[in-house]
Amino acid sequence: MTTRKDVILSGIRPTGRLHFGNYFGAIQHFLRLQEQDHTCYYFIADYHALTTIKESTDYFRQTLDMLRTYIACGLDPAKSVIYRQSDLPSTAELALLLGMITNVGMLERGTTYKDAVSKLPGGTTSGAEGNPISYGLLGYPVLMSADILIVQANVVPVGDDQRQHVEITIDLAQRFNHRFGEVFTIPRSVDRGAIRLPGLDGGAKMGKSENNDLGLLDDPATVLKKLKAVPTTTDPAPLTTESNAPDDVIPQMPPSVGALYRFLSLLAPEEVYLDFVGKYRRGEKFYGTLKTTLAEHVNRFNAPIIDKFNAPGNDDAFVTEFLRENAKRVSPVALDTVESCRAAMGIGRSLHRA
Ligand code: ATP
Ligand code: MG
Is residue 1 included in any domain, yes or no? Predict the structure, then answer.
């Protein structure tokens, strides 16, 4: 997927506790990449969290808990550079500079912006109460471009939802280099090849902000409660496929039942998964045992993560210190980019920065 010595960048919003979607969609790939010979930058996207802010929220607390969870999952702050976006305020400066060559029409075609508009009453930005769509949300792809370009990343692993935003980044970087000289590395998006995990409500995507998640720090009582609440009342229609592969059978199930099978296929040994596919085919009454069996496997997966999350060395002081250290590691790269960008556009280098 990647060549030697790639500079890889990926971000995660500090919008809540990490869940299985985050693990199988992102964290497990971070773990694999950190063992290879790449420079990996992972940032906690706290500025991005503000694009949907309604009231003051303790994002810093959530940032610390997310980092402790990352560490508990095995991410190694010595191998990957994990930093907080707002510890690189030069990102905001770069976003401002990039904004000067960004076409508003391109932002209005952005998927995140269009989704937000479509959810407004009447589907228009005017006339709605307050200011539900901020300048910050419209400009989100510019800030994301700054995140990528500031560290000269050449590889950005993305899910489907983010591909269009990386296209915008490529467009901006090419336009900038063409007009003002070669400042930016042109990045490319690579498909993580990760599956998208459904929510416990059967929704297409588990999300921190969706209230449909199975958390990596959920204790056994919470896990059981959440799984028992998954709707399994629909009578299963017979499967029309001979294959037992998750990608073949799960789409034929009612969505919330499919979600349970998806988790089982990821967490339980294959024979357990196949046994339950057999029960489904035979139309047996098995949802109760499916849920308790799945709960056992979820708990087995979560137990070491919860232990390491609570381990004495993995506390707020520890993660705060490594955030500080990592900000120092990434700052010189970032400042160098911003200074080159300022110089290329003609305002000259900053007179006060070292
Ligand atoms: P929010 O609901 O606040 O947007 P989220 O749960 O979608 O939170 P993000 O911070 O947006 O999480 O994304 C973090 C990473 O986790 C991204 O790389 C994203 O692709 C991945 N991810 C999030 N949800 C899922 C999911 N359900 N399945 C697979 N990957 C996921
Ligand atoms: Mg998201």
Answer: no
HEC letters along 142-177: HHHHHHHHHCCCCEEEECHHHHHHHHHHHHHHHHHH
The answer to whether residues 155 and 298 belong to one domain is: no
Neighbouring C-alpha atoms within 13 Å toward the C-beta of 313: 4
pLDDT above 90: percentage of residues in the chain: 72
**Å from CA of 23 to ligand 1 middle:** 9
Query: Three-state DSSP class for 11?
Result: strand
Cβ–ligand 1 contact at 208 (below 6 Å): yes
Domain containing 286 equals: 220-309
- Find out whether 135 and 168 touch, Cβ atoms under 8 Å: no
Closest CA to 196 of 10, 14, 15, 19: 19
**Contact indicator for 148, 169 with CB cutoff of 8 Å:** yes
Number of folded domains in the chain?
2
Domain shared by 84 and 224, yes or no:
no
Structure tokens at 122: 């009447």
Confidence check: pLDDT of 128 > 80:
no
The pTM score is 0.88
Q: What's the pLDDT score for residue 122?
A: 67
Query: 33 and 86 share a domain?
Result: yes
In a domain, 113, yes or no: no
Angle at 46 between CA 40 and CA 48, to 5 degrees: 95
Is 94 contained in some domain? Answer: yes
Task: Tell me which of 8-17, 44-53, 125-134, 272-281 is least confident.
Answer: 125-134
Same domain, 171 and 84: yes
Greatest mean pLDDT among 51-55, 79-83, 162-166, 170-174: 170-174
Read off the pLDDT band of 354 (50, 70, 90).
Answer: low
pLDDT of residue 125: 63
Pocket test for ligand 1, best of 9, 13, 22 (most atoms within 8 A of CB): 22
Same domain, 178 and 290: no
pLDDT value, residue 119? 79
Nearest ligand (C-alpha, residue 49) = 1
